Amino acid sequence: QVQLVESGGGLVQPGGSLRLSCAASGSIVSSGNMGWHRQAPGKERDLVASISRGGSTYYAVSMKGRVTISRINANNTVYLEMNSMKPEDTAVYYCFANVVVPGSSLSPYWGQGTQVTVSS
Asked: In Å, how far are 29, 38, 51, 108 from 98, measured between CA atoms?
């Protein structure tokens, strides 16, 4: 009932910037927290950042000061702007959204992931 489509991934040089976008669509009654996880090869998937419907934000310590998360509630879209990127930021980034669909309670949904590679 819900589809999340990510865009904006790709190759960036160390010190560069990227902006990721994720749009949730479908039979969405309301949405709660939205955000991003990432998973590097051979490592666990970790939370990068999240944002509530009211705009409260959370950032991973490793990313704090280098990223900004934002959202547009009207079209259920979340953004992640990343600056001063490092090679260790290389990973697949997954968008998530906690949403309510008709006849159900708040549940998480995931995008298919977008590759981010930081290399010179």
From this structure: 11, 17, 11, 4
